[in-house]
Amino acid sequence: MKILIVGGAGYIGSHMVKSLLAAGHEIVVADNFSTGYRDALVGGQLAELDIANAAALDTLFNTQRIDVVFHFASYIQVGESVNEPGKYYANNLAATLTLLQAMERAGVRRFIFSSTAAVYGDPNYVPIDEAHPKAPINPYGRSKWMVEQILEDFDRAYGLKSVCLRYFNAAGADPDQQLGERHEPETHLIPLILQAASGRRSAITVFGRDYDTPDGTCIRDYVHVADLVAAHALALDYLQAGGASKAFNLGNGQGFSVQQVIDTARQVTGKTINVVDAPRRAGDPPRLVADAGLAHKVLGWQPQFASLDRIVGDAWAWELKHPWH
Ligand code: UFG
């Protein structure tokens, strides 16, 4: 198949490109390199463009016979989305709509979308299943939930079939250590802890020890990037087999506290990791854990790298191999 990967130079997108190339697909990557990296592209053709540019998208779809679009390109920082909502709605919502309209003009009717656990907001219960009320509490989560709703309308009106994959906490790195997580600035817990372990940072800051959790720190469901990528490949099979538009949670169903992640990183790395305590970060729900039963049942998804040791270990190998000073 000929697959367009939007955001293929980013963290999860680049791992997807590598996996789909290995499976023998023809890959076109669309990226504007606003947050992605040229050296994260391991192959495929490159269309350097911004998906806000409808004319550039029309040219792309008119010159390439694309069968399916994977969309990874979005801004992902919750705090930034609160301070700069326009940036989030312009890129995550409006530019995605421009992409969907270009697909409609070109007759491309398969779409796999990177959604997020942030669509659930502060959960009423855990583990969270897909039926949990959608009540995002920040512009980032709202932008993703709005796209999910647009996709329902596009299916009804135009027959666009989509899979929305609601990631919990994406983490880890390519088991071959060719690719990994590289955000600038980095805000995610595991890479920050490992930067404290390698000496790139002096310490990891723990945001809040007064949550209603066993050790007082927030609990998250970390899922290996290779397992996320595998779920996307299964979503493609599902759509190709005629599956209906659907949303799936992707997580391991097991929560780890911030303190447990730090302890695991100390064991995996054998390094001293200094900790600084700080007040709660605004907008952090105390506990996010997935019920991914639907993905297991319908997609046949079985995570292969579910242990936190493995997730942290692969991220540590990447940190050691690529000390981005
Ligand atoms: N944390 C710290 N110190 C840090 C960074 C994070 O204590 O320096 C804590 C956070 O407070 C949180 C946990 O570690 O409790 C995880 O934080 P991350 O920033 O790594 O991830 P989030 O859970 O905030 O967000 C992630 C993605 C979002 C997505 C969200 C939905 O980054 O894009 O999951 O589950 F929306």
Task: Write a concise keyword list for the protein shown above.
single chain, 325 residues, alpha/beta, UDP-galactose 4-epimerase, domain 1, binds uridine-5'-diphosphate-4-deoxy-4-fluoro-alpha-D-galactose, seven-stranded parallel β-sheet, Rossmann fold, globular
Please tell me about this protein's structure.
The protein is an alpha/beta fold and about 325 residues long. It folds into two domains: about 1-170 and about 225-250, NAD(P)-binding Rossmann-like Domain (Rossmann fold); about 190-220 and about 255-320, Alpha-Beta Complex (UDP-galactose 4-epimerase, domain 1), CATH 3.90.25. It has ten helices and 13 strands. The chain has helices at about 10-20, 55-65, 80-85, 85-105, 140-160, 190-200, 225-240, 260-270, 295-300, 310-320; strands spanning about 1-5, 25-30, 45-50, 70, 110-115, 160-165, 170, 205, 220, 220-225, 245-250, 255, 275-280. The strands form four sheets. The chain has a seven-stranded parallel beta sheet, sandwiched between helices. Strands 7-10 form a two-stranded parallel ribbon. α8 (about 260-270) packs across α10. The longest helix is centred in the first third of the chain and has 22 residues, at about 85-105. It is globular and about 55 Å long. The N and C termini lie far apart (about 40 Å). It binds uridine-5'-diphosphate-4-deoxy-4-fluoro-alpha-D-galactose. Uridine-5'-diphosphate-4-deoxy-4-fluoro-alpha-D-galactose binds near residues 116 and 204.
